[in-house]
Amino acid sequence: MIHSRDRAHWAPLWRDYLAFYKTELPDSTYDATFARYADPDMHDMRGWIAWDGDTAVGLVHSIAHAHGWRPEPVTYLQDLFTTPDARGKGVARALIETVYADADAAGRPAVYWLTQAGNSTARALYDKIATATDFMVYRRATG
User: Fold this and answer.
1) How many CB atoms within 10 Å of residue 108?
2) Residue 75 is inside which H or E element, if any?
């Protein structure tokens, strides 16, 4: 789990993750997001950091929520990132398996996430540990 002492290690990982998706967010969003993931009483939002010794090499965030088609909540794996040096070493798989284990322990066997269609490196792993769907994601258009 992410702890309040992890902010200095978490922030660069999340910044690099957002940069991968060509996204920048204000510092206030970093503050609010980290506070949620580091709050031990926030049971619907969880986060973990992968470590190689004292070096943070990856992160994953998940959000539990109710679902209209299931009696139990489901888990949305929202963010997953590993540093370039950690790729291909099982870090991403371990982070996903951490989310799976947390979901199972909480009685939420359904776990899902999104990725870009062209993210072939990540999809090579995802195709081994999950089932792809044919659903498209739509977002509300803004003015």
Assistant:
1) 19
2) strand 74-82
**How far apart, in whole angstroms, are the C-alpha atoms of residue 70 and residue 54?**
40
Summarize pLDDT for 28-74 with one digit per residue, the tens: 999 999 999 999 999 999 999 999 999 999 999 999 999 999 999 99
Q: How far apart are CA 111 and CA 120, in angstroms?
A: 20
Question: Which residues 6+ apart lie within 8 Å of 3 measured at CB?
Answer: 38
pTM of the model: 0.94
Q: Residue ranges of the alpha helices (H) in the chain?
A: 7-20, 27-38, 91-105, 120-129
Report the sign of the C-alpha dihedral through residues 125, 129, 130, 132, in that order.
positive
- Contact between 100 and 111 under an 8 Å Cβ cutoff? The reply is yes
> Which residue is it, tokens 């790729």?
87
Picking from 7, 51, 2, the residue whose alpha carbon sits closest to that of residue 31 is 7
- Give the orientation angle of helix 91-105 with respect to helix 120-129, to 10 degrees: 40
